[in-house]
Write a structure and sequence with these properties.
Length: about 450
Amino acid sequence: MSASDAHRTIETVWRMEAPRLIAGLARIVRDVGRAEELAQDALVVALKQWPEEGVPRNPGAWLMQAAKHRAIDSLRRDRLLARKHQELGHDIETDGNGAPDLDAALDDDVGDDLLRLVFTACHPVLSTEARLALTLKLLGGLTTEEIARAFLVPEPTMAQRIVRAKKALSDAKVPFEVPHGAELTERLSSVLEVVYLIFNEGYAATAGNDWVRPALCEEALRLGRILAGLSPQEPEVHGLVALMELQASRLRARIGPDGEPVLLLDQNRARWDHLLIGRGLKALERAQSLQGQISRDDAPGALPGPYLLQAALAACHARARTAAETDWARIAALYGVLARVSPSPVVELNRAVAVSMAEGPAAGLVLVEALMSEPALKRYHLLPAVHGDLLAKLGRHSEAQAAFTLGAELTKNQRERELMLARAQTAREAAARDGLDHSCSD
């Protein structure tokens, strides 16, 4: 195997094994930052040895063994061994030489270790931006350069953000554990929010020249699937996975040949990924079954969570063979429930769109114009975009032109800006024709 082939193999193995390595090491050293350094030390050894000696038959196990040796050396070098025995108690058995049995400690409860790492990386002590960066670094296996490029910030800025996040966890002495009771529910919401934010940034980029970033969607899906495997009884986890699977099924159809946005009703549904749709519908069925158990056993009549509801909304689109077959009445009703579960102006805006499709643009316009003074939507580019669309459908083209122009000014995404400017131009031309028609009739 050539050196370049070995390096590609190492990169692939690292992406697959890094979360497991870091999670196992973090349980031993009780410090996420140190655990990552130890795992990367093992990677450095692989980069030196594998191109010369060949890739081992079980590269993941090789990296784990190398990481274990680094962990032992680190504990001895820093004179932490006695303190670690006291801190970990029965978690680590010692061998005859008084060294910790890291083989047993790292090989046990791998799933639990990963779950601990997820909850640690998404701890509320960190800002949302820091949680996103640290999750992609520790669990996504992305490099700092890749994360910086995804969120359009300089690499040194992202590196500092990640370093500060790890230091904040260490300074706050955040325990490397899965929380319990009410804290578990609260922290799970934070974990799901981080994964969903990563997916959303890939599905509809907030800035830059690309409207979609499929790599981020893939990472979020991978993290969601891991989380579903580690928390099999949580309906919202399966709801989020279902939502992401169903949304991701449309990625290929969301952009045209030159990278331009293609809106939902204009998409070629033959380009939708029906394997992902099938997986999404199956995950939704699982979430709804679990939610039904909760409603029957614990809280009769309990409302489903926001991710499950959004997955049900996405399923309405996935099941429609054509845009005309979309059940907009059901979508509007689901948005009504979502507004009760997770009220926000953005949900109300989406509900207005659904109402406009179910009952006509005039009905939707009433709801949209009620949101025009909403402070939270003042700089939200999709509000004037939706407003412009409804105005255009009602033949109020001059007003639609102004709305699309405002939306173009507010968005930070170049592709979206081009789309809105094109729609503004179409509205301007329609307004000019209207003026000409009036002039001729006079």
